[in-house]
């Protein structure tokens, strides 16, 4: 099978980029011919090349709307796909999703779009939700299948009439196991809390910092992994609250599993989500989780079983749940063990890979074959 993956940004590593990297690498390793197309080269393209997966940059493919630049990106993408001649195009993130589907449609290549959390989800402004929902309804006919990473997003797409139910398929995110290294030991004293996530409006670091300031009488420290435009204000806030000496701002890291294995509790405070990969990684090392009950989080975290769900922006409930896990070592250990079992059953990377591969095979078995003509019949490594 020849597969082309299209993602908007390749100069950073986020959920969509990791999803594409891991799927493309696995498909390549089992013998399929794979290429990844994205914007300007960077961290993602470097990691792909280390794994032997060819990457093709289109610098005009950017997140921001710009009519002439977007037209140029579409034409370059269409020309590249005509040369690569994939049997299937898999698009990821909004801009790549729109332009990639359009280019595939123009060339007669079967295409699918994976929504890593809809831009019209709860937590986004009402005006923006209406605009993004309309855009997705207009783009939906360009794809043969639409994949959501959570049941929440599948239902949301149906409620917004993005596409008919037989066109939208839910395949839960899956992550590689952060073990075989020694697991976390979330029953010790001196509780280390960790949160991973970009410092952006999606994550609510402000709520977390204010909550922990209320718990300064307890024995905790906090590791924050990630970077972004709101990191400097978060550092300033920690100082103003007088808790800066208990927090490590670790920035972007390539050893997230190691950070998780040194923690006792995982927390994710968000305004909106799809299905967070970071929670799955935390569960894979046996950490109890406290997370905002947004998007598909409740499909992963089972209330009072593998962790706690907290209403969005409810700092009082967040403080109660964190205090309970900070002070109860046996509860941390019990929740962590149950989370590990849940990860093994549903959220391993191998489960997602098998379901995704079955979808690809089903699409091509339906007789959806590219109608391209011209030179070259194989994806070429660059």
Number of DSSP helical runs: 13
Beginning-to-end CA distance, first to last residue: 19 Å
CATH architecture of the largest domain: 3-Layer(aba) Sandwich
Question: Could you tell me the number of beta strands?
Answer: 13
- Major beta sheet summary: 7 strands, parallel
Mean pLDDT: 92
- How big is the Rg? 21 Å
Unreliable stretches covering 5 or more consecutive residues: 372-382
Q: Considering DSSP H and I runs of 4 or more, what fraction of the residues is helical?
A: 40-55%
Instruction: Tell me the CATH superfamily of the largest domain.
Output: Glycogen Phosphorylase B
Strand order of the largest sheet: 3-2-1-4-5-6-7
Class from helix and strand fractions = alpha/beta
**Which geometry do the CA atoms define?**
globular
Beta-strand portion reads 15-25%
Order of helices and strands: EHEHEHEHEHEHEEHEHEHEHEEHHH
CATH fold assignment of the largest domain: Rossmann fold
Q: At the first level of CATH, what is the class of the largest domain?
A: Alpha Beta
Number of domains: 2
Q: Can you walk me through this structure?
A:
The protein has 382 residues and is of the alpha/beta class. It folds into two domains: 2-174 and 348-365, Rossmann fold (3-Layer(aba) Sandwich); 191-346, 3-Layer(aba) Sandwich (Rossmann fold), CATH 3.40.50.2000. The protein contains 13 helices and 13 strands. It has helices at residues 15-29, 43-50, 67-84, 94-107, 126-139, 151-159, 205-214, 231-241, 256-261, 277-284, 315-327, 329-347, 349-365, and strands spanning 2-7, 33-38, 55-57, 88-92, 111-115, 145-148, 168-170, 191-196, 220-225, 247-251, 265-268, 289-292, 307-310. The strands form two sheets. A seven-stranded parallel β-sheet has the order 3-2-1-4-5-6-7, sandwiched between helices. The chain has a six-stranded parallel β-sheet with strand order 10-9-8-11-12-13, with helices on both faces. Helix 7 (205-214) runs parallel beside helix 8. It is globular and about 65 Å long. The relative contact order is 0.13.
């Amino acid at each position: 099978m020849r597969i082309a993956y299209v993602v908007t940004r390749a100069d950073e590593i986020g959920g969509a980029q990791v999803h594409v990297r891991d799927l493309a690498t696995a498909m390549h390793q089992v013998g399929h011919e794979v290429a990844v197309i994205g914007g300007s080269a960077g961290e993602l393209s470097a990691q792909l090349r280390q794994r032997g997966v060819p990457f093709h940059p289109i610098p005009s493919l950017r997140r921001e709307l710009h009519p002439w630049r977007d037209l140029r990106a579409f034409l370059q993408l269409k020309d590249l796909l005509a040369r690569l001649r994939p049997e299937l195009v898999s698009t990821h993130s909004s801009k790549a999703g729109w332009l990639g589907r359009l280019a595939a449609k123009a060339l007669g290549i079967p295409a699918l779009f994976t929504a890593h959390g809809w831009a019209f989800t709860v937590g986004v402004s009402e005006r923006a939700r209406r605009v993004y929902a309309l855009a997705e309804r207009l783009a939906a006919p360009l794809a043969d299948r639409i994949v959501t990473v959570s049941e929440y997003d599948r239902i949301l797409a149906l409620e917004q009439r993005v596409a008919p139910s037989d066109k939208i398929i839910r395949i839960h995110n899956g992550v590689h196991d952060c073990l075989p290294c020694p697991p976390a030991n979330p029953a010790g004293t001196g509780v280390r809390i960790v949160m991973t996530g970009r410092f952006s409006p999606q994550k609510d670091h402000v709520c977390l910092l204010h909550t922990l300031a209320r718990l300064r009488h307890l024995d905790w420290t906090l590791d924050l992994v990630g970077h972004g435009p709101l990191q400097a204000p978060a550092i300033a806030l920690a100082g103003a609250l007088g808790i800066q000496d208990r927090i490590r701002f670790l920035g972007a890291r390539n050893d997230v599993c190691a950070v998780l294995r040194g923690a006792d509790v995982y927390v994710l405070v968000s305004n909106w989500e799809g299905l967070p990969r970071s929670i799955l990684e935390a569960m894979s090392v046996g950490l109890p989780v406290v997370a905002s009950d947004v998007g598909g989080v409740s499909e992963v975290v089972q209330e009072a079983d593998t962790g706690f769900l907290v209403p969005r922006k409810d700092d009082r409930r967040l403080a109660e749940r964190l205090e309970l896990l900070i002070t109860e070592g046996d509860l941390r250990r019990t929740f962590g063990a149950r989370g590990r079992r849940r990860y093994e059953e549903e959220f391993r990377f191998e489960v997602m890979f098998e379901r995704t591969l079955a979808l690809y095979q089903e699409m091509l078995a339906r007789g959806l074959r590219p109608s391209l003509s011209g030179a070259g019949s194989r994806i070429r490594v660059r």
